[in-house]
Fold this protein.
Amino acid sequence: MRRGSVFQLVGLGIVAAAITTLVAVLVPWLPEDASRESGRIHFVYWFTTGIAIAVFSVVVAVLAYSVLKFRARPDDDSDGPPTHGHTTLEIVWTAVPAILVTAISIVSAVVLAQNGHAGPNPLRIQVKAQQFAWSFTYPNGKSYGYLTLPKGRSAKLDITSQDVIHSFWVPEFSQKQDAVPGQHNMIVVTPTRLGTFPVICTELCGLGHALMRSHADVVTPAQFATFMKNGGTKGPAGLAVFQQNGCGSCHTFKPANATGTIGPDLDKLAQYAKQANRGSLAQFTKESIVSPSAYIQPGYSDLMPHTFGTQIPANQLTQLVQYLDQGAK
Amino acid sequence: MTAVAAAHDHHAPPKPTGRHRLTGPGWLRVLWTTPLGFGVGAGLVVLIRWLADWHPLWKGPVIVTVELVTTPLFFLVGLGGFDYWGYYASGRKTRPEDHSGHGARSWRDYFRVNTDHKVIGIQYVVTTIVFFMIGGLLAMLFRAELAQPGDQFFNPQTFNVLVSDHAALMIFLFIIPAFAGLGNYVIPLMIGAADMAFPRLNALSFWLLPIGGVIFLAGMVVPGGGPSAGWTCYAPLCSHQPLGQVFFNMGVQWAGASSIMTALNFLVTIITMRAPGMTFWRMPLLVWANFTTSLLVVIATPFIAGSQFFVMFDRVLHTNFFEHGGGGYVLGYQHIFWFYSHPAVYIMMLPGFGIISEVISVMSRKPVFGYRLMALSLLAILVLGFSVWAHHMFVAGMAGWLRVPMMVTSMVIAVPTGIKIFSWLATMWEGRIHFTTPMLFALGFLSMFVIGGLSGIYLASVPIDIHASDTYFIVAHIHYVLFGGSVFTIFAGIYYWFPKMTGRMYDERLGKLHFWLTFIGFNLTFFPMHYIGLQGMPRRVADYAHRFADINLFISIASFGLGASTLVFLYNMVYSWRHGRAAAANPWRALTLEWQVSSPPPIFNFDEIPQVVGNPYEYGVPGARHAIFGAPKPEPVGAD
């Protein structure tokens, strides 16, 4: 190659690298990191991105140079030089990618090991997924429909499912783990930032999948201690039951700010009860929770899990029925 | 060198008359055998239930499951897929092979059981394009739903059905069989053979394909609801879906059987039917690619068949393969499924690699750089491809120790893939590049596949994958490798061999327009998905957070543009096939054998058996020949 061509090729490579770097840096690709684990994962991401930019720029530079320089004229019937190979070159482009992926593998393996390691005295939380709700049980035995974590202390989430496979993900924590029936899968989260972050189900789990959402509150250790003592949910007792069992994923209910549309609209509960004509409002409500297939509101399908009757303790069920019936009046 | 179809030894079969029209193979016989198959299926179920005293005797879901075996089987019997073997097995006189099934004299011949690999190749390609259109339409429907958060057009059930069937059609009815179709047409020609090794098996394997497709489509509209567990169909969700799920499970079986039969045919053809002098190291890379792909298909496809049977049994027979409550192993499904479905990624890519090697070498007028390493890297991908399946399960909760080894093997696949990319670049280097439509698609493939490959490195890294798996980042990645990768190579292949297959040239200006619209539409649609995925939008959701509204609207609009770009392709194909300018035997001045015969080729491909004397890509080598014709006149080829 002539020296001028080398300069042109390198120039193209630099332009490609510059543009790619700008795209990588200026677009906020990743969510803010809110856990020690996500900080490490972001490091692996940027490490890989550096290598990816280099490889991409080399390929694009050669491609662009070839397209610009080796274009045949319409009447050019000649052939190119019959180059069959170049052993050194072939060894180089086998060895260099091998070294690069080895480097990424080592960094990844180290981070994976670190991220699986909870510090001393981790907070142990049982996470239970079911269609289409999350429930988080703390060491004191109390359960909530959302996650509350103290900043700076590692939490060990023991994740399982009651029915099909779900997946627990908080984008800002970067940690994700499938919830598998019959299995207890563990992940570690060490929050580093106060705030409220979404909990998202990322494994298709049925009709309510898109709405199987909750939230994770990261609070100060002092706030967390209060939360452990007092509960945390303000408002009527039934609201806590409503949230904890994920009713809002499928049902609309204004008093609870729930907007699900898969199941019947609970704001119209009184009207439905009249239509169904199956006893008093309270009887109808209770029956619809405990044995949901007994009566299906026209326009909706027989989809509600049959597990709530055994899963919700009797006193909580009464609270829930009261709460729903009050809201409906 | 070339020859016109020899008409003298080729005569139409006598037209059947009277009742023979009803008993001879064909659509009239299909009209009564198909309902008969339906009756046999239902009768079988009722009889068994009556003998066992199970009630009710008439149980819809069970009958449907059995029907999905018997009805297509009797359809194939009616069409004539088994006639020869039936006569042979029952000791009756077989009709001597008079080659009346060879060649297509009118469009009707494409709707028969035809044993000519060239007819079958075209049957395959046209059928798969039909399913490509349907699959694309499904995608545009759910993109319409995703244009805004909340529910607009479809409820979650319908949305999930659209997503599941979009993927199933694109994978099982478009990409995999489209390569089988192109290979079917080209491989015997490239190795100097008169046909495939098993022409009747070849005919049968094509006809299994539309059956699979019709079953997938029927499953969408069946009462009770379509399959809505995604194309991955994970247990136990999949075992508790509406009836349409059974159609999905069985559609995979028919398409998979078709795939296995074709692969066996390719293997035997390539191993035993190469022309004299065609050693393995003289085979075009497309043949190498289909050889390795066929090995993958034969070894891996039975696993997806097993996985789909087992989830179906969990549902229909109440077995407990994957039901935790009954002692099943929930993650067992994923292990079996991905043991096929990761190699399937290479089944959907390696034939494309072959096409790109042909196109880049011919259009750059240079030998393929590092030919032997190119072939060996295919074999390396074949071997490594079986050791990486669990990288789809990094967050699934499988045995923890498996993660790092599976990460390393997944990373290592980048090495043979890199060899191929760099060798293609080196093939173009200092060439005389002709920017025809196939070459544009080859270049589009190169650039897009590099992006898809690099995002694959991110996903191979366990920590990044933990963040990105099951998000739109995955959706972006698979479309960069399967659309930017596989589909671009399919387009390159179709344009490249269009003159050979039809005897006419396609419209170059429309071809280029198609490329640019597709290339731009593709990037506008799929590149932003990387961003929303990393930011927190999961895949397979009908509804999403409001902060992703604008970008999803943008993606939806771009996807409609991408869909519309296909109309240019369709118009070009249909118009050029009818009215295009006649193609020369060798418009690309290529050296491989398929271009050394007329366009379209004679009915038995070669009037003279070629003698292969050199490598297939010796562009620029003075006096180099790939093959010479003029060996002694062969015996009538294809005789039984």
Notes: Residues 123-230 of chain A form a domain with the Immunoglobulin-like fold (CATH 2.60.40.420).
